[in-house]
Amino acid sequence: MSVSYNVSVYVQWFCHVDDDNYVNPEALLSLLSAFPQEGDIYVGKPSLDKPITAHELLEGNREVQFWFATGGAGFCLSRRLAEKMAPWASGSQFMRTSAKIRLPDDCTVGFIVEKRLGISMVHCPLFHSHLENLLLISQRSIPQQVTLSYGIFENKMNSIEVKGSFSKEDDPSRFKTVHCILYPLTSWCP
């Protein structure tokens, strides 16, 4: 996370997505363009159905609750919000903040945004992690989905159900099939 603050190029958004996710760039751009350019925006999907509880060290072990967007599904921060996060997230500060609440990086982002800056997360159902039942995503809705994931969920392979030219053996994540649905003219699509 702190590496983002060392980038000198001007960008409007910082998005974090795990390397085992599929990102649909058109859906992502459509989503982000719906927000005001000068807004303080933190958008993603929580993996929990309620705010997480943490205890802040050095503050009397005070209990705090906040929403966070799971890194496994991906999330985005507007540049304006990312700049406001800098006192707790730039350089080594991010690791210190994370250690203070004893939670991983995606939780730390939510903590900074909601508890330090008082800004609410925008919950978006178009981000997906392997921690949800991906069979519930219809093939018809794939063009609108921002991210897709796959993995083991409840001791079974968890991936979206899509029909296409690739078998589940050749495409266990189903990402090649999704890509060919979205971009059928790709050279390696059947």
From TrEMBL:
Its main location: membrane. Keywords: Glycosyltransferase, Membrane, Signal-anchor, Transferase, Transmembrane, Transmembrane helix. It is found in: Endomembrane system; Membrane. Coiled coil: none annotated. The keyword Membrane applies. Residues 8-174 form the Fringe-like glycosyltransferase domain. It comes from the Eukaryota. GO terms for molecular function: glycosyltransferase activity. GO terms for cellular component: endomembrane system; membrane. It is a single-pass membrane protein; Single-pass type II membrane protein. Belongs to the glycosyltransferase 31 family. This is Beta-1,3-N-acetylglucosaminyltransferase manic fringe-like. It comes from Pundamilia nyererei.
